[in-house]
Design brief:
By secondary structure, the protein is of the alpha+beta class. The protein is built from 11 helices and 8 strands. The strands form 3 sheets. Strands 3-4-5 form a 3-stranded antiparallel β-sheet, covered by helices on one side. α8 (131-144) packs across α10. Residues 7-86, 109-224, 227-266 form the DUF8054 domain.
């Protein structure tokens, strides 16, 4: 039997990790300290060993003395237990840890991911949608054209519940979702993102495993790979504008429709990402 399997047999997940009872742990640590002190009076080294083994038991099982969790819940006053209960904060911290871990495990190299999945291919030195994926994306452009602003459609982009989506009064498409503003430079950009997301979900099972924020970045990168504007079918062109800010002048490179004028994407000249048109 391996060391790992032994630990797993001893571990009690219902009393450890996020389920650990802090008062129960404190009581057991005190018991361990008292017991090791008494043993240490007679045999000092044995006292150290007792303390070490006791702490390991508390760490793995959540308790040292069997029945402590039940006795704590039954006899420890509610007012005292309430001081240790911070489940709301613990839940938020746990969700944050889970998101970080999920991002670490499922983050992809976008270029390799899109190539491996047959979404993007090089064409004359330029990244382009593959023919089959382009056709699927076009289908989703038409399918989502009339439902573009529905909460359920927008919530899907960020793995959120529809009732968490709130519209905002701005000159461009924007929503507030989970206390964060999400925005697009135009209706065409929003339609491109919605269609791309739906097409990717239908194309590969791996898409929904990619972290939410990375999916958003990939969708933005893919806005300009289509042959024409999602909103009107016009040709997408690249322009360069000089914008003045408090820090001086800087050039913005933009991809926009030559017909309706909808802007799909814009980048600062120092942005490392590259436009593909």
């Amino acid at each position: 039997m391996t060391e790992f399997s032994v630990v797993e047999r001893v571990r009690r997940p219902e009393y450890t990790g996020p389920n650990r009872c802090v008062p129960c742990t404190a009581v057991n640590v005190v018991i361990a300290a008292v017991a090791s002190t008494l043993v240490g009076v007679v045999v000092p080294l044995a006292g150290v060993a007792v303390l070490a083994l006791s702490l390991v038991s508390i760490y793995l099982r959540g308790y040292l003395v069997p029945g402590t969790p039940t006795l704590t819940k039954r006899y420890l006053p509610e007012s005292i237990r309430a001081r240790f209960d911070d489940h709301e904060a613990d839940d938020e911290e746990w969700e944050t840890i889970q998101k970080i871990e999920q991002h670490r495990e499922n983050a992809v190299d976008p270029e390799r991911f899109l190539a491996d999945e047959g979404v993007v291919a090089r064409d004359g030195g330029t990244d382009r949608f593959t023919e089959d994926f382009a056709a699927l994306r076009d289908e989703h452009v038409e399918a989502n054209r009339d439902s573009l602003r529905e909460p359920a459609t927008l919530a899907t982009l960020f793995d959120a519940a529809p009732d968490s989506v709130a519209t905002t009064d701005r000159d461009y498409p924007a929503i507030e979702i989970d206390n964060r503003i999400r925005k697009w430079p135009s209706e065409a950009a929003l339609l491109a993102d919605v269609a791309t997301d739906a097409a990717m979900a239908a194309w590969t099972d791996r898409w929904t495993d990619v972290p939410v924020e990375q999916r958003a970045t990939i969708r933005e990168e893919l806005r300009t790979l289509g042959d024409d504007c999602p909103a009107c079918g016009g040709q997408i062109t690249t322009t360069a504008d000089t914008v003045e800010s408090c820090c001086g002048l800087h050039e913005v490179i933009a991809a926009e429709c030559g017909s309706c004028g909808d802007r799909l994407r814009e980048l600062d000249e120092n942005h490392e990402a590259k436009l593909t048109r």
